[in-house]
Amino acid sequence: MQRRESSKTKQIRQVLHENQTDLSAYLKRTTEPGKHVQNNQSSHGQTNDSLQDSLEHALSYFEKIQGSVSLKKSSILQKHLTTVESIALQRGLPPEAFGVLLKVSLSGRLADTVNTRLLKSLIPALVIPEASVVLAISLLCVGKCSGNVQVLFLRWLITVFDFLDRKKEIHALYGFFFSFLQDDKMCPFVCHLLYLITRKENVKPFRVRRLLDLQSKMGMQPHLQALLSLYRLYCPELVTIVLPGNRKAFFKNPEGPWKAAINAIKQSKQENSPVPLPLSLGMAQPRSRKRKWNTQLTIPATSANQVNFKENRGKCFGLSSTNETFPVEQLKTFSQLLRNIHRLEFPSQMGSVLTNPLLLHYINCMKDESVHLRLYYWMGHILQEECSWYVADKQQHEEFKDFLETVYRSECFLQEGFSSCEEFLYKSLPVWDGFCCRSQILRLVSWIPLNSFSEMKSHVYDPLAQLFFTSSLYFKCSVIESLKELLQNWLIWHASHLESELDPPVHSLNTTLCGLVDKVAELVHFVGWISTIGLHMEDNSSFFLYFILDFYETVCDMYLLHNLPLLILPPAGVFYPALLSMDSVNLNQLCYIMYRYRTNLVAAKENEQSKKKILQFKFSSQTYQEYNQYITAMVGCLWTSSAFQKDTHPQGLGMDDELLKTTTVQEYKHSFNIVHHPAMMGYAVLFVKQAWPDDKTFNFSLIKGKKWNWYLEYLYAQGLNGLKVFIESSVSRVSQASHSKA
């Protein structure tokens, strides 16, 4: 057995040396990339030789160990162990080192202390040969190493899974890994590894029964739930039990010391070298300096040397080089995606999907639930386990912002929010300070999906309201803008699902039409409430009012544009500040909004009368009554100059003449018509100048009769289209004239 293993090790080393991945080449690449340091070549060469000799001596020593050696009594073992640890932490280990170190650490020849230190030193600089890992896995069958060492090996394998040069033989060992589920210590990590390598052909009835037996024995463990959930997605007919949903994290963090060391090595090399280094496993693009949040967002690529290594190794061991699946790192064009869409195998590092538009196209088109579940797990792990509101340095803060921005762009591409991101927001908003990553957090709020309504008020609305009332004007505007985009996304989702009868329903029962109407109404009422209070706090800011009216421009057309049987008018605390606004832009926008409300209400009334009950909903008489009150106030202000007498709204402009006389304002009745209104007075001045250039008194009373109609045409020519459609639809004389003219 030892002779066979020795010959196989020699074959691996021979193939590696043939492809120029020996120690000297490795040390030369990592120390002098591009030979950009000319003045220190001699010193670097000496350092390379020293490190090369030390590591070669250490590997040769560990390869020749036959019996048990005590760490305390052997200074040679201490020396070589320290050498391996030092080089691993400084530069990472070359590919040929892993076979030797894995073999000795899992053979049981050395004490657990030494084996643990060796496993913790297995930090890759380039790639890890799959043959080395397969050889190490075979040693687990011998059972000479302790349970703690076996668990540590599995944790290492999960962490560096994407550094393996290929995974075909790992997939072939699926049944071997599955047999280790009976070990209580190893079970969580075996489930994690199986989760990464499971394919549809791996799901068998006997494995489902085994998992169910383990669950009945151990209880509802999250790692078993994860594997059962993946099995159910591949073969729902085999897994018929009900599994709890919305797990925040299926697996514990297995990364140990390896991920931090890998990121530290990568960071130091990229800072010290102006050229890309081979340690980065991204595609042939400028390397990112992100060391925590964005290191998993690139697809592990296969370099030319690695391809040659695979081919030569296949010839050496009699392995077939043909793959049934199409490697995603070779996916470059949309035509390639179309040709190979049924042969794609997603990378185990699901974060790379977020930065690849072609893979996002695949998710959007194929509706592969297994991919969604893997992406849900990965993102939930990143956001829930690794992210908390902590005081981080500036670089980590920027990395976190970039990561959230990447998630948001992916949601925009898919036109759908991630459920993991939704859970992250529910957890984070109650403790968010409103300042850290403000733009990114509010953008993510706009993509909260429709599959869970019950937590919106307590986890989204209430925290946002607290921040809204205690923050600046610009934060208030950002919140209103985010909630407007959230409403638009909900309405677009509703309209698209209404048109497509083949689409399956969303998971929650609350996404029925009644639930959708109730929750959209809740959102609109919430925005109306905070807008009313916010306008009082900001002294009816025109800037803030613009964002509020922009929100209601979406609300007013929900019935006709999005087929949602719901119309909610703005509260009086929004309507009247807009009607009396000093800004013509806001007044014009209010006129357009009321015109669209009228169009939607008229269409709804006609459908009711003709018994064409769109979506079988009717508007209440209170909605029509409130609209009529608003229209009376607007026409009384802008046209008939009778708002103070005819406005009947409880919070409206109705006042007694005696009270108005005490204001000592002359012609107070005309104060808010289209000539004297504070928002329109600038237009009136310019019109008087053009119509009566010799008049220096600015006598607005001249604008009457035929001149009044000229003034209207002048206003329309200035781009006040909202005012135009409102007057033509709501003022009877102008409406009749426009119809006759047409």
From TrEMBL:
One of its GO terms (cellular component) is inner kinetochore. It is found in: Chromosome, Centromere; Nucleus. Keywords: Centromere, Chromosome, Nucleus. The keyword Nucleus applies. One of its GO terms (biological process) is CENP-A containing chromatin assembly. Signal peptide: none annotated. It holds the Pfam family CENP-I. PANTHER family: CENTROMERE PROTEIN I. Belongs to the CENP-I/CTF3 family. This is CENPI protein.
